[in-house]
Write a structure and sequence with these properties.
2 copies of one chain form a homodimer.
Chain A lengths: L6 E4 L13 H7 L16 H11 L3 E6 L5 H15 L5 E4 L15 H10 L5 E6 L5 H13 L4 E5 L18 H12 L4 E6 L10 H13 L4 E6 L3 H13 L6 E5 L5 H11 L5 H7 L6 H21 L5 E5 L5 H10 L26 E2 L6 H7 L36 H8 L6 H13 L21 H4 L2 H9 L3 E6 L2 E5 L13 E4 L1 E7 L1 H14 L3 E7 L3 E4 L7 E7 L6 E6 L1 H19 L8 H12 L1 E7 L8 H12 L1
Parallel strand pairs in A: 2-3, 2-9, 3-4, 4-5, 5-6, 6-7, 7-8, 8-9, 10-18
Antiparallel strand pairs in A: 11-14, 12-13, 13-17, 14-19, 15-16, 15-19, 17-18
Family (chains A, B): Belongs to the methylenetetrahydrofolate reductase family.
Keywords (chains A, B): Allosteric enzyme, FAD, Flavoprotein, NADP, Oxidoreductase, Phosphoprotein
GO molecular function, one term (chains A, B): FAD binding
Chain lengths: ~650, ~650
């Protein structure tokens, strides 16, 4: 955008006003919206267009393949992996389809739900695999409809492995991937981007390599948008395949599938399934070290890096697809060594944008869910639209109920035993709770020697930005101001700032200081006296579990606490303190004391009763310092409160 | 708001979200909107509520009465007077009803249209008088419906003077003001606030003072909200009347009508019409000086000030109503001496807010019409709603056509002869046009010794804010960069700043530097070369009369150039550079060359041809410096351009 050349356009009529933006009708519809400026072209582009744009700009990319895990716990871990590997900037991820595992169901481990999570909760462009053999047309249509409903926009159309040895083609059935491609185009027109599989050595069941190429061409001509290949071991294999494809008129993108060898057994397994032959020179290296996992992985990384370099250097390859086997280390290492792992500290917005088409226009959220973005998306998933980047003209719609809590991705990543070590096998009083909060802030081990790396309100260690406030946070947590969310004030830092920056470059970001905490009613009483002095400089909302609510906000309007100013844009204000949502958040915040902490202990046990007491009697407080250009006064407010109590 | 005490409210249910704001359903509907925070309680309050609030807070107020003028030119002047006297902060103005002058028509001098202009173009709370005798029910309903449609919300219900000497009551007709009050309440429920007239000395036609008080009580009990009295000459008259009203159970506000004596003849005229007797002590002073207008006015001011002081000191009077006779000086003088003229440099928004209920939510406008706000309101009056404070989710609606131009309030205030003196009886070339622009900026007389106090694009002398840029503006206008709109950059000045501040106190306001001008194609060519260096720091739109449009804006999104951050509020961004509206503005801006300037000269005359040449060949340019925290680079851009040309 920086080097954009001026373009000349002739205005047809002054009263004509339907935009004319280049990215189609949906984008021009948005062009005059007030509060939802389009931050990033990516948010509006189809996958095939993104691919084309990256190819045109010469910007190499990668993608990552995952399979659905078997257990709910493994799913929680996989999703953390999506978040971490998503940080490297894959163009997309894809999720395989396991016909035996009820892949279209609502189970937390189904292909459908894992892909849904990737799109909607992790904000990743996602391809859902789908196989067609041995399935009815209605089943397949049902799966596709569900995928569309969930916001999935890309399908990898596969035949799948036939069940039984003696498979026979069904008349009018789905016998080949091309039937699925045709079906998708017939029933869903151009809605989905469709990917198909290519076999650099020919499909093992094909009559010949040439016959297989002809099958591939059929799939493309039936409506596939691009091809991802089966794995291969030599770059020449792929490059020859690509030239052969082009020779018979296949012009769509062909993406090489890369398999970094990560272990002896996984290699054998994969080779067996794919009926590929491992080249002798690789076997010669691996066999002698087959029991040394680290050695094999190092070799696998070396091999993948050099093969990928050859592919990229050929000038014919623009993107690389990685078969991760749900593992992180080898693929990340390869990507970093190739220089295409792009961990960009800059974010389009201060929070992760959902990739669901319906939520594209979302550009403002309440600050309360800052550490629980998946919970926020889950609880607002029923909202029909986000006309102001949030909610409609009338009133904010209802948040999803707290029963939805039990959903796997709202659980803590850590098992009970670990949580007990962090948060205390036995609590002796409110002070032992204060200590847990303090250890989480400082990063120091607790009295039993364990580090507290998560809290019920925050599944991850302290954010870099919060580190700026560490010293003060430690002090106040020790004394029973149990902080769960905070941000410093920022008065116009560049949008490229590595810690607090977000949005396009050339902009400036701002914040009002924010502090949110649980505390006792004694402290609240003193705090209220102190807050009087600060008048409207500090806005506060104070509420207990019963909903008794004390505030000096003159009405129910939201207070913008994060905003950004950009070249050629309207103001973007992605984070607000919204009094109405605060009451929904309050229910969630108090429930976390019980659901995640109290329930670690036996009923009627003293530890459980301590947490229950806090839940029943403490207040949840949020404070905003409106005077963002001055020094944050919230610490002074807290100091004054402690002083008043002494 | 600063001393607002905390209020406790019990949250009933977290999923309930319909606000709970105190000012009724319309207000709570707005409470969760994203981009249209309510700046000012006034914008949502009914007149009677404003009155009550001012009474409760002990904040004295005033209101002003005007009558519709006879000619269109007088109407243009009256509207300028509305703007100037509106600056003093009247609680409302009212416009009298002249049955003989077709008061409900669309004529530019009708009561209806003058009141419409006051509400919608001057942003003043307005009461429209309406009389009922000798009119049919249908006529009256028609007038009321029209008033409602135009956004008028307050009616002064009067009987009016019967036609002819021998007036007889009509059966089932409108014989008394009380009939009109009842009719309004029957047909329009509680939509209008209704005012009725009170007679401190009794109505001249009433049987007795007591009988007249009973009539007044009837009017109030039929649904009137408050009373404005006929003029009187002694404070005791009013205070006795008020006590008598209260004694018989009239509890609504009673506002004394104040008539500052401004001249001998107008006093006689008024006294004759109202059948009042002028006290001897006043006659004794006036008769000897009856030919000395200044002396009479000074005496009138003295008299009014001392009577108003007595009224206010009584503790019974909270507001004063002034019969201005469409004059400015005496009333303004009285108000200033009483200390209730409140010229508040602070504005709720940087532009005058229209008081039309439909436009309440409007909080953003294109910068182009900054000096022509009435034109902007006129050209957008057909827009159905302002869901984002401007326009809907789809695309900006069409601006009204330029033929509407000829409407009286879009004309220049100055007569042709004056314009010729300012802009030149005879132009000798483009340079003489440059000189006119330069003189307007500097305030120095032109070569014929006349000051240039207005331009086709700006009916008023240079704004205080623009004065900040005077030196640079002078330099560039001399060289053919003919500026018509500009603002300096502002990086977080207090919202109470007397020059650039707006909005509630405790906030901070910001601006991006802006410069808009006409210039030749030679300068544009050089400018474009220079602008390349500035990349996205400077956004530009350059267009000629044919609509050839050159821009570096990446899409059709608006660029916010004025915004404010306030305690407990979302960001407010009232002014934008909007590429779509720029093309509508362009038509208007180019048309002004011809309509206001070229047409001053004979057809085919050299002067006219010079303006026509500029109209046909110059470009309209706007520049925004996005880097608001740095020093404004737009002057550097212009300097570089001139240097390149040398």
């Amino acid at each position: 955008m920086v080097n954009e050349t001026p373009h000349t356009c002739s205005a047809t009529s002054s009263s004509k006003s339907d935009g004319g933006s280049s990215s189609g009708s949906e984008s021009s519809k948005d062009s005059s919206r007030c509060s939802t400026p389009v931050l990033d072209a990516d948010r509006h582009e189809r996958l095939r267009e993104k691919m084309r744009r990256r190819q045109d700009s010469g910007d190499k990319w990668f993608s990552l393949e995952f399979f659905p895990p078997r257990t709910a716990n493994a799913a929680v871990n996989l999703i953390s992996r999506f978040d971490r590997m998503g940080a490297g900037g894959p163009l997309f991820i894809d999720v395989t389809w396991h016909p035996a595992g009820d892949p279209g169901s609502d189970k937390e481990t189904s292909s459908m739900i894992i892909a849904n999570t990737a799109v909607n909760y992790c904000g990743l462009e996602t391809i859902l695999h789908m196989t067609c053999c041995n399935q009815t047309k209605d089943d397949i249509t049902g799966h596709l409809q569900k995928a569309k409903r969930l916001g999935l926009k890309n399908i990898m159309a596969l035949r799948g492995d036939p069940v039984g040895e003696e498979w026979e083609e069904e008349v009018d059935g789905f016998n080949h991937a091309v039937d699925l491609v045709k079906h998708i185009r017939n029933e869903f027109d151009d809605y989905f981007d469709i990917c198909v599989a290519g076999y650099p050595k020919g499909h093992p069941e094909a009559e010949s390599y040439e016959a297989d190429l002809r099958h591939l061409k059929e799939k493309v001509f039936a409506g596939a948008d691009f091809i991802i290949t089966q794995l291969f071991f030599r770059s020449e294999t792929f490059l020859k395949f690509m030239k052969d494809c082009q020779a018979i008129g296949i012009t769509c993108p062909i993406i090489p599938g890369i398999f970094p060898i990560q272990g002896y057994h996984s290699l054998r397994q994969l080779v067996k399934l794919s009926k590929l032959e491992v080249p002798q020179e690789i076997k010669d290296v691996i066999e002698p070290i087959k029991d040394n996992d680290a050695a094999i992985r190092n070799y696998g990384v070396e091999l993948a890096v050099s093969m990928c370099r050859e592919l990229l250097d050929s000038g014919m390859v623009h993107g690389l697809h990685f078969y991760t086997l749900n593992r992180e280390v080898a693929t990340t290492e390869v990507l970093k060594r190739l220089g295409i792992w792009k961990e960009d500290p800059r974010r389009p917005l201060p929070w992760a944008v959902s990739a669901h088409p319906k939520r594209r226009v979302e550009d403002v959220r309440p600050i309360f869910w800052a550490s629980r973005p998946k919970s926020y998306i889950y609880r607002t998933q029923e909202w029909d639209d986000f006309p102001n980047g949030r909610w409609g003209n009338s009133s904010s719609p209802a948040f999803g109920e707290l029963k939805d809590y039990y959903l796997f991705y709202l659980k803590s990543k850590s098992p009970r035993e670990e949580l007990l070590k962090m948060w205390g096998e036995e609590l002796t009083g409110e002070e032992s709770v204060f200590e847990v909060f303090t250890c989480y802030i400082t990063g120091e081990p607790n009295k039993n020697g364990y580090k507290v790396t998560c809290m019920p309100w925050n599944d991850d260690p302290l954010a870099t930005e919060t580190n700026l406030l560490k010293e003060q946070l430690e002090k106040v947590n020790r004394r029973g101001i149990l902080t769960i969310n905070s941000q410093p004030n920022i008065n116009g830092k560049p949008s490229t700032d590595p810690v607090v920056g977000w949005g396009p470059s050339g902009g400036y970001v701002f914040q009002k200081a924010y502090l949110e905490f649980f505390t006792s009613s004694e402290i609240v009483t003193a705090l209220l006296k102190v807050l009087k002095k600060y008048e409207l400089r500090v806005n506060y909302h104070i509420v207990n579990v019963k909903g008794q609510n004390i505030t000096n906000a003159p009405d129910l309007q939201p207070n913008a606490v994060t905003w950004g100013i950009f070249p050629g844009r309207e103001i973007i204000q992605p984070t607000v303190v919204d009094p109405v949502s605060f009451l929904s958040w309050k229910d969630e915040a108090f429930a976390l004391w019980i659901e995640q902490w109290a329930k670690l202990y036996e009923e009627e046990s003293p530890s459980r009763m301590i947490i229950q007491y806090i839940h029943d009697n403490y207040y949840l407080v949020n404070l905003v310092d409106n005077d963002f250009p001055l020094e944050n006064c919230l610490w002074q407010v807290v100091d004054d409160t402690f002083e008043l109590l002494n």
